Amino acid sequence: MDITQYVNVKKKIGASGKSTIFKNLRKSKGDVICDLSTIEETANAVRSNLVQYMVKMLIKSQQIYDMDKEANKGCLIPDEPKTLDYARIVLKYGQHNFADDTLAANTDIEELGTAIDYLWKVSAIQETFKRRGLLYSFPDNLEFFYDKCLTVMSTKYAPTEEDVIKARVRTTGKVLRNLFL
C-alpha cells in the first residue's frame, strides 16, 4: 500500500491524524512546515483548545464528583475565591474563536493564560484529567500545551515546529501537496 492509498483509507475513519502524518513527512524531507499561515492557525487552534477543554474539565469535574461523591471526592473543585475567579474567567471565553482576534485587550489573553495555568495545577482538575478516555474524550497532546500555557497564551507566542506537529488542528477539505519519497 502506498502513502496515497493509506491516506485514502484513513480519510474514511475521520480524525486520525492525517495532517500530522503529512507534517512529519514534509519535515523529514526538509520542507518548511512553519509558514506564516500555519503559525497563525496553530496558535489560534491551540489557544481555543486550551480554553474549550479547560471548560470541559471544569464541568466534568463536577459531573464525575456527582456520580459517586465518596469515590470521586478528588474531582471536586475547591470552593476557594481564587479558583472560582479563575474559573469564571475561563468560562467567560469558553466559546471564543481566537481567529476573530476580538479579545478586549492583549492583557485579556494573558489573564486568560494565567487563569488556565492556575486551574491546570488544581488537584481536582488533575484528578479529572486522569479520568479522560474513560469518562470523556480529550485531544492528544493537549497536556503538552497546558504545561506551557503561559507561553502559548502570551501575545508574543509563535508556535515552534514541535508545537505545529503536536497541535490538533481540524483540517477540512482537500489539501494537495506533492511529496517525493
From TrEMBL:
Keywords: GTP-binding, Magnesium, Metal-binding, Nucleotide-binding
Example of a GO biological process term: adenylate cyclase-modulating G protein-coupled receptor signaling pathway
Pfam families tied to this protein: G-alpha (PF00503)
Gene3D superfamilies with a match to the protein in the record: GI Alpha 1, domain 2-like
Residues at which Mg(2+) binds: 19, 171
GO CC field: cytoplasm; heterotrimeric G-protein complex
Coiled-coil ranges per UniProt: none
Single GO term (MF): G protein-coupled receptor binding
InterPro entries: Gprotein_alpha_su, GproteinA_insert
PANTHER family named among the record's database cross-references: GTP-BINDING PROTEIN ALPHA SUBUNIT, GUANINE NUCLEOTIDE-BINDING PROTEIN ALPHA-5 SUBUNIT
Protein name: Guanine nucleotide-binding protein alpha-1 subunit
Origin species: Reticulomyxa filosa
